[in-house]
Structures are given as structure tokens and as C-alpha cells.
Amino acid sequence: MSLTLQPMNAELFASWMRHVMGWYAQGKVEAGSWPEDGAVERALRENAEQLPQGLDTPHNDFFVGTVDDREVGYLWLYTDPAQTPPATAIQAIEVLEGERGQGLGRELLEAAEGWCADHSIQTLRLHVFGRNTTAINLYESAGFETTNVLMAKTIR
Asked: What's a single GO MF annotation on this record (predicted)?
């Protein structure tokens, strides 16, 4: 059992992007960055600006993680062409709900690292919401280091 990355097709991209923007918006709300009212619409609007050509937007790569031809997760990578040396960011990474707890998140991370190595990318970055301790623990155990910390305090 070995995870491989396959390019995402347009149909899956459209449905997955709506899903991703929903959980991104919820993360922004829970982090106190956005009000709940209009959060999903804001995420969709920002996403449309970030991906003006959708799946075919340059410097963005979308993958389906598969094991034995079975979809187990998804990965979105963005490589900043202006950065020297080049760096890639994981924009979104997800293991399907029924597939979690089997080490597939780590395998998706390793596949992202392999993609970077194949494309002469020396740095892989990601963002994670502070309340997502499961993901933070995975990323730290995979060798990711904290490079920035954004903190907030509610004043009443």
C-alpha cells in the first residue's frame, strides 16, 4: 500500500474547491479573523481571485492522493515564481474522513516533499489554524518548524 499523486480533473476540482472554501471559511471564523455572516462567500471570492483560471491557474498544482486506485485525499500546492530560491506552499491538504488515522496524512506530506524534490524546490511551507492541534502535531512530527505566529486577544 503506497500513496501516489494523480492530477485532479476539472469536475473533482470544482466540487472539492467548494468544500475546501467551506472549511477554510469556518477556520477563519473560529480563529476570530472573519465574522460568520458572509464568510463562505468571502472565501469563494478570494479563491476566485487567487485562481482566475481555476484548475489551470499557473503555479498551482492539484492532486488526488490514491492508494490502490482508491481516492484517499487531496493536495493543493502553490509555487511562488517570484521567490528565490523557489518555494512551494501547501494551500490545502485533506485525507478523506473514512481514511483518516492510517498514516495517509503523513504519506500526502511525503508525496508533496517528493514533488518538490522532483521540481528542485528546497522549501515546503504550509499554514495551519492554531486550534488544529492534530494537524500541528502531524506537521511538527514530519519536520515542519514554526516560522511565524499570529496571535490575538479579544478585548471586552
From this structure: acyltransferase activity, transferring groups other than amino-acyl groups
